[in-house]
């Protein structure tokens, strides 16, 4: 993880991967914040999809700390180039695939876990990746303070088992955990 942190900070001098104001707290704010998702997924087998991977949080952290196959979906070309270089440098390229595009365009088999950190509203995330999930897919979505509000809005169009976990890294942040997610039938 130290190597990855070094790569992120170095690349952040070239492109805005993470805010300079968060360099001093990169371990807590980005690495541990990402790693805290792993225990939530320990009983869910299968590949992991990270939507809007950006600097690699949480996708590269997951790929580095586990032996799962991980797909990183990232539409921005410079960030894709960074993710490819980081995967190679960290020795995880063989089981880490990087999709250069929006998740809605990704054609792949359903995955076991879907994560997204600071990408879109819950409703949009569910809609964008619904074709890559099954009823058994675990959704792990760090959402910040408004997680409960986003769940309430999403439940208008989606059903499933939704609950909210407290973040270990920030007392004001929450993580949406969902399973059995499916679009509600319009009547």
- Count of helix runs: 6
From the alpha-carbon coordinates, what is the Rg to the nearest angstrom? Answer: 16 Å
Low-confidence stretches: none
What's the CATH topology label? Rossmann fold
Principal-axes shape call = globular
Total beta-strand segments = 7
Whole-number total of structural domains: 1
Average pLDDT reading = 96
Largest sheet: 7 strands, mixed
H/E series? HHEHEHEEHEHEE
**In percent terms, what proportion of residues is strand?**
15-25%
Kindly report the spatial arrangement of strands forming the biggest sheet. Answer: 3-2-1-4-5-7-6
Q: What is the CA–CA distance across the termini?
A: 49 Å
Helicity level, as a percent range? 25-40%
Structural class: alpha/beta
Brief rundown of the structure:
The protein has helices spanning 2-12, 26-35, 59-65, 77-90, 122-129, 147-154; strands spanning 48-51, 70-74, 96-100, 113-116, 138-142, 158-166, 174-183. By secondary structure, the chain is an alpha/beta fold. The chain has a single domain (2-183), classed as Vaccinia Virus protein VP39 (Rossmann fold, 3-Layer(aba) Sandwich), CATH 3.40.50.
């Amino acid at each position: 993880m130290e190597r990855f942190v070094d790569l992120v900070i170095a690349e952040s001098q070239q492109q805005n991967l993470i805010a300079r104001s968060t360099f001093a707290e990169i371990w807590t704010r980005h690495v541990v914040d990402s790693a805290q998702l792993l225990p939530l997924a320990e009983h869910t087998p299968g590949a992991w999809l990270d939507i809007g991977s950006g600097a690699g949080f949480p996708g590269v952290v997951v790929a580095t700390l586990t032996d799962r196959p991980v797909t990183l979906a990232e539409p921005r070309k410079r960030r894709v180039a960074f993710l490819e270089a980081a995967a190679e440098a960290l020795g995880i390229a063989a089981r880490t695939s990087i999709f250069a595009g929006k998740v809605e365009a990704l054609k792949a088999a359903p995955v076991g876990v879907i994560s997204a950190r600071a990408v879109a509203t819950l409703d949009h995330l569910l809609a964008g990746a619904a074709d890559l999930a099954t009823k058994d897919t675990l959704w792990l979505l760090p959402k910040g303070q408004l997680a409960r509000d986003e769940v309430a809005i999403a439940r208008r169009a989606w059903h499933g088992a939704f609950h909210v976990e407290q973040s270990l890294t920030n007392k004001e942040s929450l993580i949406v955990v969902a399973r059995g997610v499916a679009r509600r039938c319009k009547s």
